[in-house]
């Protein structure tokens, strides 16, 4: 088996269907198995999979296990030489798998591969290529400097604004929506950390790949559609707590000396985000 595609689904049945159809087309000519882990969607996703995609391997959880744990459930059973961790709210290009396979086989010390992601309007998604988070990246994002200087390596280091969208580049962080990696490397570095329920696990994995001596790459020559966040509710306190909680886990784990400063920044950002959220909810209720 050459490729194992791993998809964790949560309440996006129709998008999952569209994703799987694109995967089947992209996988033509590559020996591929597909795993879908359903995190207790209760929206008919499991029934749809059994009826419409009988060749897909399904793991149906009785509760929401989170992103990392659910992925690892399937990866433990996967037989492919390569893994593709893929979001259900994506549509892959028909050439994407072949492009990634060719690049990974011809590039020494290739760790993980990410691709150009666009939203449903065709707009480029900046998280397609990212640098590792630190005190300075948190500051430039918190102060919105990256929006004032979008192409700057100094003021937009998190989104690597100095790197073109169309090229192939060495990058730090892979986006969890699409991570292509050799299974042996995934296993050797420890894979996704189950401590992360959702968010931050892709940064953690990327750092472990980098620390092990491999290089992560961004391929701007192939793209996928990412509906982005369809299976999460971003207008909620729960989202804020999980997202910034994940950043705290990452910093405490990999940058313990700067953790107190980073923790302070995160606490301030959370406070601002929550205040903004409550204000928006109040205004929405008035209309």
Summarize this structure briefly:
The chain is built from 10 helices and 9 strands.
Task: Give a description of the structure.
This protein is an alpha/beta fold and 287 residues long. It has two domains: 3-124 and 165-228, Alpha-Beta Complex (Spore Coat Polysaccharide Biosynthesis Protein SpsA, Chain A), CATH 3.90.550; 233-287. Helices cover 41% and strands 20% of the residues. It has helices at residues 13-26, 45-52, 67-75, 96-106, 135-142, 145-148, 183-189, 201-211, 237-254, 259-286; strands spanning 3-9, 32-38, 57-60, 82-86, 90-92, 110-118, 168-171, 178-182, 215-226. Strands 1, 2, 3, 4, 5, 6, 7, 8 and 9 form a nine-stranded mixed sheet that branches. Helix 2 links the parallel strand 2 and strand 3 (57-60). Helix 5 runs parallel beside helix 10 and helix 9 packs antiparallel against helix 10 (259-286). The termini are far apart. The model is unreliable at 230-234 (pLDDT under 50).
């Amino acid at each position: 088996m050459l490729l194992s595609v791993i998809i964790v689904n949560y309440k996006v049945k129709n998008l999952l269907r569209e994703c799987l159809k694109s995967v089947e087309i992209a996988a033509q000519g590559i020996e591929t198995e597909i795993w879908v882990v359903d995190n207790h969607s209760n929206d008919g996703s499991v029934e749809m999979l059994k009826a419409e995609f009988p060749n897909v391997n399904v793991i149906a959880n009785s509760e929401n296990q989170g992103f990392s744990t659910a992925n690892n459930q399937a990866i433990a059973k996967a037989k492919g030489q390569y893994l593709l961790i893929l979001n259900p709210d994506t549509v892959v290009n028909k050439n994407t798998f072949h492009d990634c396979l060719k690049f990974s086989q011809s590039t020494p010390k290739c760790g993980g591969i990410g691709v150009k992601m666009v939203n449903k309007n065709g707009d480029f998604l900046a998280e397609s290529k990212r640098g590792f988070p630190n005190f300075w990246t948190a500051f430039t994002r918190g102060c919105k400097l990256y929006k004032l200087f979008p192409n700057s390596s100094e003021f937009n280091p998190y989104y690597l604004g100095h790197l073109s969208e169309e090229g192939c580049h060495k990058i730090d962080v892979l986006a969890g929506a699409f991570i292509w990696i050799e299974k042996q490397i995934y296993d050797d570095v420890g894979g996704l950390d189950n401590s992360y329920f959702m968010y931050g696990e892709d940064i953690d994995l990327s750092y472990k790949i980098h620390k092990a001596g491999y290089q992560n790459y961004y391929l701007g020559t192939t793209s996928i559609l990412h509906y982005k966040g369809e299976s999460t509710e971003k207008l909620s306190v729960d989202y804020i707590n999980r997202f910034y909680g994940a950043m705290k886990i990452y910093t405490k784990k990999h940058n313990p000396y700067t953790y107190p400063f980073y923790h302070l920044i995160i606490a301030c950002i959370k406070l601002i985000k929550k205040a903004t959220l409550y204000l928006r909810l109040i205004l929405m209720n008035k209309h």
